[in-house]
Amino acid sequence: MSFAQVYTRSVVGLHAPKVIIEVHLSQGLPALTIVGLPEAAVRESKDRVRSAILNSGFQFPNRRLTINLAPADLPKDGARLDLPIAIGILAASGQLDPDVLSGFEFIGELALNGELRQVTGSLAVARAIKAEGLALKLAQVLEDNGQKRSEASPSVQTTPQLIVPIKNGAEASRVDGVTILAAPSLKSVCDHLQSLSDSGELDMRLEVVPPSPAPKQVGYKVDLADVKGQHHARRALEIAAAGGHSLLFTGPPGSGKTLMASRLPTILPDLSAEDALEVASTYSVADSDYDYGTRPFRQVHHTISAVALVGGGSRPKPGEITLANKGVLFLDELPEFDRSVLEVLRQPLEAKQITISRANSQMTFPANFQLVAAMNPCPCGYDGDGSARCRCRPEQIRRYQDKLSGPLLDRIDLHITVPALPIADLQNAAAGETSEQVRLRVAAAHKRQLQRQQKVNNELSPSEIDKYLPLGEGEQQLLQLAQQRLNLSARGYHRVLRVARTIADLADSADITSAHVSEALSYRSK
Question: Is residue 501 predicted with pLDDT exceeding 90?
Answer without folding.
Answer: yes
